[in-house]
Amino acid sequence: MSARMTGPDPHRFPSAIPPSAIPSAAQRMLTSGRLARRFALVSLMLGVLIAILIGASLYVVSSRHLARQHLANVEANASLAARQTEGLLDTLVTTMRELADNSVLATALVDSAGKETYLVPFLSSFDHIASVPLAIVFTDFEGDQIANNGRQAGALTITAADMAWLRAAIAAGKPAAAVIHQDGTHYLLAAEMLIYSRTRSPEGALLYKVPFDSLVLHPEAELLHMAEPPPPLPPDMIAVTVPLTVPDRLSALGLQLRLEAPGTPTTALLSWMLPAYGLVALAALLAIYIGSRAVGIHMTRSLRELERLAGSIATDGFTGQRARVRGSDEVSALARGFNAMLDHIAAIQREREMRAAEEITIQRTLAERAEQARAEAESARNEEERSRQEAVMALMVAERANAAKTHFLAAASHDLRQPVQSLVLLTSALALRLGDHPAASLVGSIEASMDALCRLLDAILDISKLDAGTVSPNMQTVSLGAIFARLEGEYRLRAAEKGIAFRSVPTDVTLHADPALLERIIRNLVENALRYTDRGRILLGCRRGRGTLRIQIFDTGIGIPPEHLERIFHEFYQISNPTRDRGKGLGLGLAIVERLARLLGYRVHVASRPDRGSCFTLEIPMPALSAPAVAPAAEAAADAPQPGRGIALVIDDDPLVREGLTLLIEDLGWRAVAADSAGHALRLLRDQPHPPDLVIADYRLEAGATGLQAIGAVETALKEQGHASPLCVVLTGDTAPERIADAQASGYRILHKPIAAKEVAQLLSDARQDRPGRDPARSPVPEGAGRRNSAILQG
């Protein structure tokens, strides 16, 4: 839709009046007379100027608004007329297409006789379609007329030129349409073909002719086509042209509807707008003059009083008169200044007399304030010192409490691990000896209970190792996709047993990290999600960020209330496990995650909504490596290692642990020699014809001795006898950070109680493999033990 408007701009602004045009009488009027009258005249002149400006602005805005509204009305009328014309054209084309498909016409093509009797009345019924008059001619395939609808006279006569156009359309073999100009009138000339189904060629045709004027229902609208340029637009008129959406048969004609209308009706605008503006302006000017006159009289009242007071002082002298002050305007300020001048005359002497007293008072006041400020500063310093001392005392109490907790956990862990280690070893030895005995199932139940207790002790040990700082990351190239695939294979079946889905998003990201510690973090987060999700799904994936890699674990579990989000990373803190059910974990997994993340320089945070689920995110501030990940080494065989045969020296002051470890080693095919101290072990070595292949010593021995000292004494004795050093292992149940650090610094292989039978079997196997090539000096931790830092954290 487009619009065009012509004509001169009716809006004009009044020109400014130059100051030189103001008459001299008006200048005298503004500069002489009473202030109230002058103020009223100035206000009146400003009001006239403002009224003229506002009136002109309102006139311009209103006229433009009416012009836009008038244009919108014309466009709406043009759109309505266009839709009506489109409906008439669509009805006309549809009716003629259906008429061409009518069986009556098909019959007339093959019936050469009697067609005047039934075909002419049939076509005559179509002299109007949707109130639009039209002429119809029915021809054969050569364009010879067979019948018509009876409109063969007047303006709708089908001419010879029309028939010639129809024969050209029949030769083309498809429907056609054209616009013709005849006797000063435009007509729509269109043809529909009667196609023979076998040859797909026209066997006849329908020619219809419609005047353009009958297709437009709006009296001021006209129908245009593409081949004819629009007529020129008269002055002060606007025109709106709307393209028509027509059937495909008429689309090539480019039909448009054009509606002409007069421009903005400015006469009607002036007929009511200018009188209204004039009345409003006169009322405003009258109100301005009356109001400004009243305001001027009110404002000059104080000046008149000052005038009378000055005359009275000049006549009678100063006797304590005072000017009356009203408000806070400039005139009131003048009255206050007048009163101040009078007061100054009377107060000069009094001020001289009081000046000395005032100076003394001021000095005393300043001294008092200085003393008060000094006292306040001293009090603030004392308060600050007291607060600092209280903070130091609170810090010392907190550190003592933390140390007491650490020592308590270490002592409790050590005291628990001793009997637990005995139970584990004796239970394993009993299981080997029972074999298929019916009581073997009871041993399995005992081992399950022991596994739960061992997991608790291992978790406490992990916390202690991380607090002690003995876990050193082993950084290498890690394939994150391999970790995801391994965890998915491990947890998919467990998730399916709970009726939930577990899936990991494949990734090819490689990064430089400790593979065991990174996998432990992700595994603990997956375990936590699996533990608290009873329906829905768990999703493990990662996404790259700018300088960071985010590993995320989504779940649809019970969620975490906002007030618990900061505390879930504390030890033994569980939200929904008040009865401490072992099946819901120990409350240490997330504490280990937080410490491991801090150790590796990562950040872990959680977003959660109760009853909707949680999302744990591990942020790794390292870019992904471009080099491919190194393939992980092949895992150890699932079967128990073959320990072979050899001699093991066991040094432990606990008889139950010593007995259980001895029985288990002997059941595995080795010969065990047990001692309760370093001296006892040296005496036994002197009686042995062969040196031991393995030395296992407890870290804590009687009388304050340690297993490190015992192993050192055994190595020294063997070296003096010319024997190579055996594989030396230190067993410890102590979780104190300083004890863990000492044991880690010794260089020996460190195992933490309780150890299982498979670990003992692995030690025996490692001792037989390492024996031939061992250096007589103290051997460093073997390659398998180098992974102990990570392996301990996998339990």
Q: What do these coordinates show?
A:
This protein has 795 residues and is α+β, with helices and mostly antiparallel strands. Among the domains are: 83-261, 2-Layer Sandwich (Beta-Lactamase), CATH 3.30.450; 471-620, Heat Shock Protein 90 (2-Layer Sandwich). Helices cover 51% and strands 16% of the residues. The strands form 6 sheets. It has a 5-stranded antiparallel beta sheet, sandwiched between helices. It has a 5-stranded mixed beta sheet with strand order 13-15-16-18-17. The protein has a 5-stranded parallel beta sheet with strand order 20-19-21-22-23, with helices on both faces. Helix 10 packs parallel to helix 11 (515-531). The longest helix has 105 residues, at 330-434. The protein is flat, with a radius of gyration of 55 Å. Mean pLDDT is 76; it is low at 4-17, 578-582, 626-642 and 772-795.
